[in-house]
Design a protein that fits this description.
This protein is mainly alpha-helical. The protein has helices spanning 2-38, 43-56, 77-94, 98-115, 119-130, 154-157, 169-187, 190-197, 207-229; strands at residues 142-143, 148-149.
Amino acid sequence: MNAVTAEVRTGLGTMVRVYDLTRALFAAVGLAAVLAVALPVPREAIQRQIVTSSAAGEAAGANYSAGMIEAKQAPSAAVAREQRAVAEFIARRYRIANEAAARFVATAYRAGKESSVDPLLILAVIAVESRFNPVAESVLGAKGLMQVMAKFHMEKVALHGEEDVLLEPEANIRVGAQILREYLRRFGETETALQMYAGAFDDANSQYAGKVLAERSRIEQTLMRLRRAV
């Protein structure tokens, strides 16, 4: 008799626990429904969830649209105006096509932003090194707009291709800007960094740096006139 009573009590205890769990579950569901009404999920969060769920459901190897990928931002109106003024100055001074000058200037500004290097300094180095001739080559093996010596900077050149990639303006300017950034960070001073860039570190008169900084000053004067006019 005692054994029967114990079994009954055990069964009743189990039923009570199941009842308590069921009641708690329904209470939680009800609370969630109330919160969903009182605190609606922001539309942006729902959209993100839909995009995530849709992407998870795509088959492997499927083709995707690049429509959501952000394109390179166009320069602001003020920066675009400055770039035009610099390009016009360079086209006149070095007798190159306006279109070519505009491309070189735009690339120098992008490379400068990417490398945290003054774009006017990049353009001044180009002026001194090659006079904006993208296929210039020296007897020592320096190539392109910024006369990069591939054998000394192969790890940077390799990020863009083989050595001949230095004859492509964009690659050359980007590599040259990276070299300038490296020397500027190492020495913490523009004149010394420029002398190192030219391989003229031992020149006590810093003639190369003087030429580059003088050219940068000429370009900057063009911008100063533009700003005063505006």
